[in-house]
Amino acid sequence: MSIDAPWKLLAAAGLGFCGLVAAAVPLAAPPAQGAGPAPAPVETPAASQAPQVQGPADPALAQLVAALGAQGVHVDPAAGALWIPVRIEVRDELLEYLLVGPAGATHESLFSTPVRASVLNAALLALGVQPGRNATWRARDPKPTEEELRAGMAPYEVTLPAGDGLELTVVWRQEDELFRFRVEDLLRNLLTGASMQRHSWIYLGSRMLPPDPRKPGSTKTEPAAEQFAADVYQNLINVSFFSEGYTLLSAALPECVEQTIWLPNAWLIPQRGAEVALFFSRGKLREIPPSLSEGIPRIASADRDGRRVGEPPAPAPPGPASTGPAQTGPAPGAQPPGGKPKDGR
Predict the structure, then answer these.
(1) How far is 25 from 127, CA to CA, in rounded Å?
(2) Where are the domains of the chain?
(3) Mean pLDDT of 182-200
């Protein structure tokens, strides 16, 4: 992604204040290919230790926060955290994605969100993250023997994603309790028989796709505009690795090269269709910042009852609720071609 790409993304998101965000969000160029690993993100203080303020003191930053809030993104740059409303899509099937849009791969994603990818990306930039490098892999040469594979040797040599990382946490209210889980706790690894190892999810920032000369209205002198890949494909966070780098974030564990080992931990997850909050934080989210506590989705106890499978979600009890922005129109939902090795185990 080029250094001016974030401003193109803001324009694509309909956030007409590029100069405002330029003043509010410092940017740096992504690391060059072949460079050493990007520095690890600095852990932010716990919410209880951070100074509690009513809102950003910088008027430009305050305007950015308000504009993002109007599109369903609740962000506090001072706390290094934000959250968006997400809907539970898959509870009992294999997963390749953690988060997609309405026209993304909802049949293989734990969550979907009505928040546009480029809007979420603008909010992540407001937290100060910079694009990292995607995973790469190649088949081992010589190919491992059957004995080595049974002993646990991976059939691929993997270079993990590197760069700024984010902690992902799922939160919802139920009756008088606040439920909070690290997102890895909600994912089962069929190889290890345990939940996914906790780790930082690497910010990739997606990429800009070149103009499509076949698009109506495109001419030689005025070609069609570039498009943000995550807006086009609507796949926002991947669990299994993809070579294209079209998502905003990627898991970063060696076993994520596999595509048939991830399942939801259905014992902890409400029923399909329930709405919860997905938090993104630069450091450990030990507490919910007061600035982000309002509007966290509230679900009915019946939505934790597996006997209600197939029924619509129960009405939420009175209390704060969150709704995402209306989808102004589905982007093309075609999936990117290929990009992953098959499970060699």
Answers:
(1) 8
(2) 5-30+57-308
(3) 97
